[in-house]
Design a protein that fits this description.
The protein has a single domain, classed as Neuraminidase (6 Propeller). 46% of the residues are buried. The protein has 287 residues and is mainly beta. Strands 1-2-27-26-25 form a five-stranded antiparallel beta sheet, with no helix packed on it. The longest helix has 4 residues. It has one helix and 27 strands. β3 and β4 form a beta hairpin.
């Protein structure tokens, strides 16, 4: 695949120099790529949303179809047992697939009503799971719930509402210690932040960053607590919300995931393609 040299468009993060980096296109020709998730077994999965497929990308090998009918998969994440948790937006449910391929429905209703369209998911080391439930496009006309939600699913399978958000929640991520929850709001162009306790309960809702250029989508944290966000460009914010780096790309990124054995490769799904860059920080291992 083609390699590009990209110049950063803002101040450089002290521990990560974006002034001249190698951006490699590793997959192309899709309709809209989303939901990258790195497996400890050495491969990346990502969604091609309009076609309903999940694609498997193993470094050094051509992309292959992992699942031909995914229920409209958007965001996905692997838990520490190697099981794949997927937001099936078209099927309006959250599922978990074990290593043998058996699919289990984790959540599809809240207070007796079907979920809107689960979009992205993050999983804490202790099994607490968080996901967003917006409604984009035609999904809005058929929803049963009259709000957009952020949810918490406990290891015991208890579903609780974290918040009803005024704008549509999209990407979701956890801090390295699992004590903070970040959620992007694509309508209000900001990132919300909650504190999490040991039981997984969320409190102290506040705005982490506002005024983001371009609707923010997926986000992840690195081992030092910095927040990496896919928006009009790839943006990086320090743990206290200060902008520290910006990487312009040939296609606007939709989502991202740290991968490879050392978790120092950042994979970015972007419109019709998937890119990767090498960075000098490890991704957080809580998700």
């Amino acid at each position: 695949m083609r390699m590009l040299w990209v110049i950063a468009g803002a101040a450089v993060l002290s521990a990560q120099d974006f002034s001249k980096i190698q951006l490699e296109k590793v997959a192309a020709g899709y309709q809209y790529t989303e939901g990258p998730a790195w497996s400890r077994d050495g491969f990346l999965l990502f969604s091609d949303v309009p076609t309903g497929r999940i694609i498997k990308l193993t470094p050094g090998e051509p992309p292959a179809v992992f699942r031909a009918s995914s229920g409209g998969a958007h965001g996905s994440a692997f838990d520490l047992q190697g099981r794949l948790v997927t937001c099936e937006a078209a099927a309006r449910r959250l599922t978990r697939t074990d290593k043998k391929g058996a699919v289990e429905v984790l959540a599809e209703r809240f207070e007796g009503k079907r979920l809107n369209a689960p979009n992205d998911v993050a999983i804490r080391k202790d099994g607490h799971l968080y996901f967003t439930d917006p409604a984009f496009g035609s999904q809005a006309a058929t929803r049963e719930l009259d709000f957009y939600g952020v949810y918490h699913l406990s290891p015991k399978g208890e579903l609780a509402l974290v918040a009803k958000t005024p704008g549509r929640p999209n990407g979701i991520a956890l801090s390295p210690k699992g004590d903070r929850l970040y959620v992007t709001d694509s309508d209000q162009r900001l990132i919300r932040l909650w504190d999490l306790d040991r039981a997984g309960r969320a409190t102290n809702e506040r705005v982490f960053v506002s005024g983001i250029e371009g609707p923010p989508n997926g986000l992840k944290t690195d081992e030092k607590g910095a927040v990496w966000v896919a928006a009009k460009a790839l943006l990086v914010f320090s743990e206290d919300g200060k902008p520290t780096a910006k990487l312009e790309m040939p296609e606007p990124p939709a989502n991202l995931a740290f991968g490879d054995a050392d978790l120092q490769t950042l994979y970015l799904t972007a419109q019709k393609s998937v890119y990767r860059i090498r960075v000098d920080r490890r991704g957080s291992i809580v998700q």
